[in-house]
Amino acid sequence: MDEAALNVHLHTIGVHTLLCVFFALLTAGSNACAAVLQRKAAAQVPPERSMHVSLIADLIRRRVWLAGIGMVVVAAVAQAAALATGPIALVQPIFIIELPLTLVLAALAYHNRSALRRLPWAAIGTVTIALGAGLAIAQPSGAVDSAQDTSWMIALIVTAAFEAVLIGAATSVRGELRAALLGLAAACGYALTAALMKNAMSDLDQGAVEFFTSWHIYAVAVAGVGSLFLLQNALQAGSLVASQPMLTVGDALISISYGVTLFSEQLRVGWWLVPQIVALACIIVGCVQIAKSPLAAEATGLVTETASPVLLWCE
């Protein structure tokens, strides 16, 4: 490869990486908005509707929840674009930024200047800086865009078993612990959805026929709906911060495992693992500090409301 061709290749990689990061950040922002709006709606639903189809029937009558779903759609489109231009191991960890974004947006949404001042800014800064440093050090790269069906079968069996354990444990507890367990279950579902979406985008590169005749795009819909159902129950079971750390950090770590095992994505190894582990530890500590902050620990959370009876819309 001559020097000119090498420069063009490196330029293409740089542009793709920038586009990937931009769309991933847009996804994170959209998901943070969706979480605030959906939590506002879910907090109004009676507790007895937890883990029941009637929960969704109730939520769908609430305009604020529908607005949250609109942001979910925006996030899905942005995520598809991010996964089409970069590896899962780069895209999904960026979503960790959703946690501090969610808290900031919740305070802004309710015009609560006092809450905004009380946000754990040191912890938010730690998470943000550690995330950027960790990704820069790891330099995740993708080897293949499509996984073998055999690998998918193993991944789906392991995922189903993991989800069964989490959901089974969640049904036997109440409150914040249930929210955390269901948040992790939703994280696993969203990580699976991202992996399936990346494979579906590879199918699309081969044409519309391949895209619509392959099972990946339909599995995206099933996994996405299932993850959404788990998330709604996590939000309804406890405070936003109880579920959000498990959702964001869990999504990132599980997505990396999918990227490495299914798509042969690579991270820097050797002594590079030391600063990566340090960055991960800082992210976890930052998330824990955010969860332990007085604002996050309030029983009512940032966006909860008093439960109210369900009213049908009348035009």
Report what the structure shows.
There is one protein chain. The chain has 14 helices and no strands. The protein is mainly alpha-helical and 315 residues long. It is 76% helix and 0% strand.
Key terms:
mainly alpha; disordered C terminus; 315 residues
- Cα-to-Cα separation, first versus last residue: 67 Å
Q: Given the C-alpha coordinates, what overall shape results?
A: globular
Which structural category fits the helices and strands?
mainly alpha
Q: Output mean pLDDT.
A: 79
Oligomer: single chain
The number of distinct helices, counting runs of at least 4 residues, comes to: 14
State Rg.
20 Å
Unreliable segments of 5+ consecutive residues:
4-12, 297-315
Biggest sheet overview: none
**DSSP, total strands:** 0
Order of helices and strands: HHHHHHHHHHHHHH
Please report which band the strand proportion falls in: under 5%, 5-15%, 15-25%, 25-35%, 35-45% or over 45%: under 5%
Bin the helical content.
Answer: over 70%
Structure in a nutshell:
With 315 residues, this protein is mainly α.
Lay out the secondary structure.
Layout: H1 3-42, H2 53-59, H3 63-85, H4 88-91, H5 98-109, H6 113-118, H7 121-138, H8 149-171, H9 175-205, H10 208-213, H11 216-237, H12 240-263, H13 273-292, H14 294-297
Helix pairs in contact: 1-3, 1-5, 1-11, 3-9, 7-13, 8-9, 9-11, 9-12, 12-13
